[in-house]
């Protein structure tokens, strides 16, 4: 796929690679150890023009393509998974939903925030509604021109550091009639009733907090309601459509981690000697490396194809199946590649002095967050079979015996 990149895209990738090598990489181990959000990396990304890359020009952004953003994300993730993830959420996810469905004022607000380096938070998951996201119970009750939100989300990336929050909630009108699922915009330190709970102690990607986000009679005025054109009834489907690009972005972080691990392993096998020869001379290891390269090339091609299929920010994601396929394949192959890279290092790979143990912890998340590999297979199956595949118990037909 590299061959099909334009000169401009190759230049962006090279610029991202230089920033990653010179500025991001030296801080990666410390970010992991201290578990502190890397505000300095955010500033470096912002100064390089890598936050808000997909914001349209009329809103002050560079109006770049999703594939351009993917090229940057991979370079960051090669050296620091946390910075890769920040680059995803400054370009995709909540920001895509606001660009697609927001009013002019909402789009301007969100654009200004990401262009200044804010990594928006997307609040979908609840303690009792993970994969079954549409069973969320956070509610938004209409009261005149505003909505009052109550409920608890958990595992919210950026909880406590993000300013813009896109909150999914079940909407009820003044008569208490359910209207569907809608999106509500809240701003840290500005929206009353937006409260942060416990931080999760995570396996990897420790430089970004995952937290409970709680809505205690949180007031959202109607001008901060994100209402897709088809209304709340189709709100969930429309909001999930805008989320597809984040799935491609998340897969790209996994790809970057795997590519970084592979490059480390390639160098190591040429240097490390056993039995009087570089271990690169053993055919068993050569075939491992060959398989790793095949997985990376295939994952990168699929990821780029999914990213390139996406029109400008604000347009619908054309094929949710492709986004799910890209995330499933890339995340699973990436975990294998990082694991194999660590194996090639022997004990040195198992040491905390070596970045591979961090990369393995980091990459492990991508078959879970953003839709598990199992749920995404159901998304794919439902579309290739052209069948609704309800997963709740009542959705199954009795066998009839
Ligand atoms: P469950 O849904 O309880 O699933 C448990 C297991 O059962 C999984 O293996 C799952 O695949 C399987 N399973 C469930 N249902 C089915 C089925 N029908 N068929 C087959 N298998 C099934 N959420 C947000 O809203 N915002 C965020 O910013 C965010 N960030 C996250 C960051 C990290 C690091 C992680 C780990 C999670 C994050 N999440 C976030 C939450 C994430 O989206 C959920 O973890 C995910 O959707 C799965 O939900 P769950 O953890 O409750 O697992
Ligand atoms: N893109 C576009 N539309 C989507 C979509 C996506 N990624 N996911 C769901 N939809 C649409 C469906 O097509 C359906 O529309 P339809 O009524 O026209 O067919 C509608 O949303 C409801 O989807 P359905 O599969 O019937 O919902 P469900 O109640 O069975 O829930 C999901 C299943 C969609 C929630 C589940 O597949 C899912 O994605 N879970 C993971 C949640 C997640 O990614 N969380 C990440 C938080 S960061």
Description of the molecule:
The protein is of the alpha+beta class and 401 residues long. Helices cover 47% and strands 16% of the residues. The protein has 13 helices and ten strands. Strands 1, 2, 3, 4, 5, 6, 7 and 8 form an eight-stranded mixed β-sheet that branches. Helix 4 (66-79) runs antiparallel to helix 5 and helix 4 (66-79) crosses helix 8 (235-271). It is globular, with a radius of gyration of 22 Å. The relative contact order is 0.12. The model has no long low-confidence stretch (mean pLDDT 96). The structure holds flavin-adenine dinucleotide (FAD) and coenzyme A. Residues 122-125, 130-131, 155-157, 202, 205, 210, 365, 368-372, 374-375, 378, 391 line the site of flavin-adenine dinucleotide (FAD).
Keywords:
single chain, 401 residues, alpha+beta, eight-stranded mixed β-sheet, two-stranded antiparallel ribbon, 13 helices, 16% strand, globular, binds flavin-adenine dinucleotide, binds coenzyme A
Helical residue percent? Answer: 40-55%
Radius of gyration: 22 Å
Distance between the termini: 53 Å
Q: Output the structural class.
A: alpha+beta
The averaged pLDDT comes out at 96
Main pleated sheet? 8 strands, mixed
User: What is the total tally of β strands?
Assistant: 10
Distinct ligands, ions and cofactors found in the model:
flavin-adenine dinucleotide, coenzyme A
**How do the helices and strands follow one another from N- to C-terminus?**
HHHHHHHEEEEEEEEHEEHHHHH
Choose one word for the global shape: globular
User: Which regions contain 5 or more consecutive residues with pLDDT less than 50?
Assistant: none
Number of helices: 13
Percent strand: 15-25%
